[in-house]
């Protein structure tokens, strides 16, 4: 398609050359460009379609990159990438060695902050605003506003001298429809644009007459807010109650109106909120009509709106599907079981239980710390919570796990989805730290399934245990046990020997054990007669000491492999145990070394890390036997 406008825009300076009346045409071209690009190279479609007019208006009004735009989260920012010199590379978005899936300062000076997790924009933008003479804008979705960090940032914004502009992008969606009181609050919230205009003019007049100074301004602002509430017979909204000026709500898809409003308020002193109403998936009917599916739809046909489905060659269930079906089965047999998810019921498949038992599933919004402490409260009240959080997002709840769950030894089951390499979303989304950060916590019990049956049995076993239990499993499809050696059921704190061998002992945990099994099998006949024993440890805590004694006595060389950080994980645990028990084997640890892993397909990244079959074979062949 021949794009009349955007093919001539290589920076916001080119955008500013256009007349305001031309901006709707720019928005239309951006929308079509994103739809066409993502139909072939999958990405986050709905969120970016909803912020096109806002993006154009922000770059038209503000002097970027001197002025800073902080996106929360970065999947709103595709139009931003296209307008800031990355149009011709946009087809590489989320691909290995291509454009970052989210904003990234290492990629462009227009990207003010990394934005892969939600709710951090206000805090980061406030720091930038206080730290320099420039305009700073935090663009935060209403889904991200459910996170506690956003409210901490608001509180700080109301206290410190700053000119921060917060744009609240309100579309009533995260990935799934939003739940909770704040969502309804935004639905009901209104304000008078005329009142805001006249209040500002009165303040300017009072300042010129030396009736107020900056120190008195906040007290005057609070009195004015109360006056407004009295006149309008409305209570203060949360922003004006915090002495943050509120503008809106306004149509987030009227680019000319947004330009006018932003031009009027950008130089107003003091913190301010512009509340805009948008529609996720705006301008593409399939994305508007099914916003959850079209958040990240994969490849699709633009004309028909039909998504390209799985080829059907692999019929094994996804890990999250096994979790969802098993949770429902357990809940049917135990009325104390409840499910908790921070805004990911469809992503983690808790929607399966939610559909059948809506009163026993709690979607708490993008609030991982709250999800864990809420689960602790449920456990304290005699319920049995299965709290499902993606590995990378569970990092945000570490203190809650330690103090609210483990310290009290509460029976909370942490189901950790997307552990290991997750693929194209990159460094902010890989789940590589969970084994390392959970292992030191007292009372914590940690296991990882290698197969679908393992996950089912671990979830059932967790029901019978005391104290906190963590079950971590990867993204993607499971492997069913019939394709592997004779199955041995899961026992508490016990691993399983998958293969006998005489020279080197290989210890794995979780799904990477399947890849290791393939690697060892492929080495038969080309390993110089070296014989490998293979153990699936299953449990990181407690460790299977019977296996470790067997291995420590018999083998001079041990290889450990895990799809997580080498530091602190299974390999470290084995090294510590061997040293503590007087064994002195050579221990070679395979996993992710001290690095953040870039984005790319899981196949490409496991190959990069030498954790695919070929890489594991190479590593095993380099291990000295004596």
Which structural traits does this protein have?
626 residues, alpha/beta, 7-stranded mixed sheet, 5-stranded parallel sheet
Provide an overview of this structure.
The protein is of the alpha/beta class and about 625 residues long. Helix content is about 40%, strand content about 15%. It has a seven-stranded mixed β-sheet with strand order 7-6-8-9-11-10-15, sandwiched between helices. A five-stranded parallel β-sheet has the order 1-2-3-5-4, sandwiched between helices. Strand 6, helix 15 and strand 7 form a beta-alpha-beta unit. Helix 2 packs across helix 4, helix 4 crosses helix 5 and helix 16 packs parallel to helix 18. The chain is globular. About 50% of the residues are buried. About 5% of the residues have low confidence.
